[in-house]
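My current task is to audit a protein record that another person submitted. I need someone to confirm that the token line plausibly describes how this chain folds. Take the sequence as given and treat only the tokens as open to question. This is what I was given:
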Amino acid sequence: VFRTVPNNAIVAETMANYAQNTLQIKNLAIFYDSESAYSLSLREQLQSAIAARGGRIIDEFDLTASGFVAQDRLNQIKEQNGEGIVLIPSTTSIDRALQVVNANNQQFPLLGDIGNLYGIKTLEVGENAVGLSIPIPWHIDQPSNSEFINTAWELWGGSVNWATAMTYDAMNAIAQGLQADPTPETPPSRNDLQTALSANDFSAPGVVESVKFLPSGDRDSELIMVEVQPSNPSRSGTGYDFVPLYTAK
């Protein structure tokens, strides 16, 4: 499988690096969704990434548990000398994750997942979400984006996010791979496309950088940490936006 978006191992590595090197925290609690394969996978990868850096998961809380009360969980984290919180909801447990954000009231540093917390609902929380950090593969404020952003604006009538940019890069990679067909007299096959994308010298135009794949099929690129910050005017219309912080492998 070839991916222009990062897999959970890469996301977890970036989050763990940010927690240790920037936030300088090692004792974290994880809020996850036991009914989501995505959430369970990222949780597992994060456990390994944090442990590999000498950190510790002090406790884990299921967002789908009956009788879930965000403040009670925060009290437990405080009693266990926790230093930070990671939120990994699914599409159906976002609201409970945001209950944690509100109850936290900026007490503990927050790290959020790439798939579900990077959106308008998080920004609508307002001041309590300020400082929530999320790893993403692309942000509209990155340099060298002007042509793509202008064209996207003309097409969609508004700003686009990382999912649009990564889809654009994926389609460019497919197009480039099809053009590399070794037998142009016959229609390219799935095997032909796989061979082209697997080549060591494969490269396709991307929004910011060329699309190249590692032997694993993952993209050879960097992630960006973004943070919720007040913004006036705000692109989101909420008074808050996700603001880029730094890039990390």
User: Anything to note?
Assistant: The chain has a mean pLDDT of 90. DSSP finds eight helices and seven strands in the chain.
